[in-house]
Amino acid sequence: MFGSIEKKQLDNIATWMTSTRETKLPSVLQGVFFMDGNPLPDDCITFYNLEWDAQTLTLLLPVFGRLQWTFHNSILGLLLLRGAQLVQFTYKIQFEDATLQRSQIIPLALGIPIPRFLIDATMCQEKDSKDGDTWKRKNIWLGGIPWVGEYTLRRIVDADGNYTPAFNDMLAKVQNDCLVIVE
Fold first, then answer.
1. Domain limits of the chain?
2. Which regions of 63-131 does DSSP assign to beta strands (E)?
3. pLDDT digits (tens, 9 = 90+) for 5-30
């Protein structure tokens, strides 16, 4: 039921959070992203190795996926990771159109969508963003409470495996050790 967890280091994330199979993922979504300002005990994600549905402009991002998500090397990080595994927490990311600049994020627990009146989450590419390097992750809770849990998603590793200028900023804000699911 629970996948194996390993401790990894964020300072070499480009060597282990990589694409291992072709999924036709659009270039704007390739690489590794840092959740800058995220109040929860998790830091980085990748969309690699997820099946991109070009017809519906959708992908499913399992928080509990293999080398998909990093969690703090702490009790709170471990609890969040195990909770995500237990309820099979997944985000359905549905883009509005082929520009892939704005998406609706639908959280799922045990495969059941969490209603939008509880959380209305979006991800929008910033206007001055270079090729999708920066996104705003926004939330509206309970039909009207904004800002709680919002953050900026910054690409820290590009599609070629090179660190971006945001990488060193990320290292200055987080602990190097993290927890990841490896199988």
1. 5-181
2. 69-72, 90-95, 102-109, 112-113, 119-125
3. 999 999 999 999 999 888 899 999 99
79 membership: H or E segment, kind and range: helix 75-86
- Nearest-5° angle of CA 162, CA 165, CA 168? 95
Q: What is the pLDDT of residues 132-183, one digit of tens each?
A: 899 999 888 787 777 777 899 999 999 999 999 999 999 999 999 999 999 8
* CA–CA separation, 134 and 36 (whole Å): 10
pTM above 0.90, yes or no: yes
**Which residue carries 């495996």 as its tokens?**
161
User: Using a CB cutoff of 8 Å and minimum separation of 24, what contacts does 124-129 make?
Assistant: 125/28, 125/100, 125/101
The SS3 of residue 80 is: helix
